[in-house]
Amino acid sequence: MTVKGGSAGVRASAQRMYGSRGWARKYESRLFASDVTVVTLTMILAHAARFGWDPFAPVAGAQGKHYWQVTVAIAVLWVLNLGWTRSRDPMILGHGPQEFQRVVLAGWRVFAIVAVIGFLTQWDVSRGYLLFAIPLGTLALLVYRAAWRQFIHAQRDNGELLAQVIVVGPTITSGQMIRRIRRSRRAGYNVIGACLPAGHEFRDEDLADVPLLGSLDDAAQVAIDHQAEFVLLSGTDAMSLKESRELGWALEGTGIGLIVAPAMVDVAGPRVSMSPVEGLPLLHVDIPKFEGGQYYAKEIADKVTAGALLLLGAIPMLIVAALIKLTSPGPVFFRQERIGRNLEPFAMLKFRSMYVDAEERLIALREKERTEGNEVLFKMKDDPRVTSVGRVLRRFSIDEIPQLLNVLKGDMSLVGPRPPLRREVEQWDERIARRQLVKPGITGLWQVSGRSDLSWDESVRLDLYYTENWSLAGDLIIILRTVGAVLAGRGAY
How many domains does the chain have? Predict the structure, then answer.
């Protein structure tokens, strides 16, 4: 059975998330089996690497146990910790960093517990054994979880593994919420209908297929009747605090969850904290800062990493340079003015992927074929200015490798907003210009979320989100996602 509500013509499955036949239980079971397998193999390898295949090697210390017993105990403790940290919680699977953070937390907890037990019992557990097992096992778990996430993404792109949701709230905010859910299918929600204020309806064409199931007063009963799994409250403009609370009461005992979307959007979790005042949960949002210790740490990490990558890639870069020189006349590198942090211009480097007269032909091409819905950023899928070698370089983003030199110079970062052209900046308003409060990046959220396939508005939204919410951990995740996007050649032309 399928229901409407998909994107790009894909219909969404009506399969339930919870219950004995729900997809969540099946997926959790698979994850559990995967965790057990990875942890077991890791502990066996750690034991073999440190003690050979002798299962009776003793632990140093008074009344020390055999290491096979320690190996089994740590493996069991590790699997239990993966459950205690809720790393297999269906609500965090498939999107966001929480699943990976909890996997790492489970590993650190195991290490801490073993260290405490060793201290209390005076058992001298081999440090080499632990330092081999815990980091290697954590890395292996992260790799396996990333592979499982790719499976979830593929399923959700096809309309599977979704939770059935009814959106409740004011017409405008409900419409905005539905659009975001549809754009973010991999977050795992499928809108099966909406409840709006009495007499209201969606007037936009892209929301014409959303069933209006009732008014705000009927929301709880509507959710029960249509077997929704969550009610998403998109705003309280049309509902008082009392009515919102009563909606939560009405859902008690039904198995239907309540999700409340705050009015503040595009703010990352680390910037938000909550404090209750007379039963009213208040969200405290930290004002974004654009200087300080984390910025110095980012700059140091950028330059060290860029230097290392340039050393490793020196010979491949020479080969690429030779291919460019042999297949088309002109220089190896393409230098172009881009706008950096605080709107300062700099010369960005790329391997040349176009013919030397590309800029002269640009005006005619802009008039002939503009990207649909994009009056600022010019992109063409079959750009006749691109050379044969350039198409390969662009598909796998090899043409962007020389930007590592820009990172060493301090003009760019490894991760950041897309570096804009001056003509683009001249069309910006003050809101968009905020993206230049940080250094532009070789990669970024725009790179791993569609690259050239993104609309102008979506590209700007992602860049602004990154500018105000970036973190070193988030940068690492973006870099890892970039590797996948580049290898797959998604959205690159």
Answer: 3
